[in-house]
Amino acid sequence: MLEKIIEYSIKNRFLIILATIFVLLWGIYSLAKTPLDAIPDLSDVQVIIYTKYSGQAPQVVEDQITYPLTTAMLAVPGSTVVRGYSFFGFSFVYILFEDGTDLYWARSRVLEYLNYVSGLLPEGVTPSLGPDATGVGWVYEYALVDRTGKYDLAQLRSMQDWYLRYELTSVEGVSEVASVGGFVKQYQVDVDPNKLLAYNIPISKVKKAIKRSNQDVGGRLLEVSEIEYMVRGLGYIKGIDDIKNIAIGVDDNGTPILVRDVANVHLGPELRRGITELDGEGEVAGGVVLMRFGGNALATIDRV
Known about the structure:
The protein is of the alpha+beta class and 304 residues long. It has helices spanning 2-11, 13-33, 58-73, 103-117, 153-169, 193-199, 203-213, 240-244, 259-262, 297-303, and strands at residues 45-52, 79-87, 90-97, 128-129, 138-144, 174-181, 185-191, 217-224, 227-233, 247-250, 256-258, 263-269, 285-291.
């Protein structure tokens, strides 16, 4: 058989050469069209539920948040494993699905069961789904470094949170951009308990007053000389002085008691539980880019 193949090849040299060239060109074309992925996705199909429950201990989070969610998610069609993790102030629930399950179908099923279980959670607690990424979707990291010393870590973090993050989120294939490092700016109200006691004002009243004052109030149309005027109240807080001047009650003489009378209002950093460091040279602010499910890591990195 081998001798016949060799004999046929010798007698039909031209056809063999053409066939060889065709196969070579076909191979080059196929190689150029072969998708390249820097990080092949071999992870399970998973949906993450994140729930924030500020100020609560892990045991309370477990009893009131994680346990109701995990027991409800056990009934989700196609789910194979449900894992719950409780931390100080927040909860994570991971739902793993059978291989081949469409991620967006799985997310829609989880949302259906979330609507049912949300009524069992404490008031004001709203669970949310994690990004439509995978376990290997962490494809790119970057840091904001100011070598001139013009900007501090708080300013760099603000640039990341309010500008750069939104620009990168709009890139094709990017599911989420998580901010890390730096200092998150806060308006902080340091209440003096002795002054609250003197004015007989509970701290909950201070909280409600600030929350109630940070909003616009709608009105109606007012017609004057056949001209319509829209009446509304502007109440959004724009600075520290606005918070200081919020009224929280009145004293025995009818004089308004303001926030500045019982508290010190200032800008400050949010409490941190970790830092981001670059090459051992000090702290930085930056972000982590998460790739959307089904995306190509190499192409997404190039676009970023």
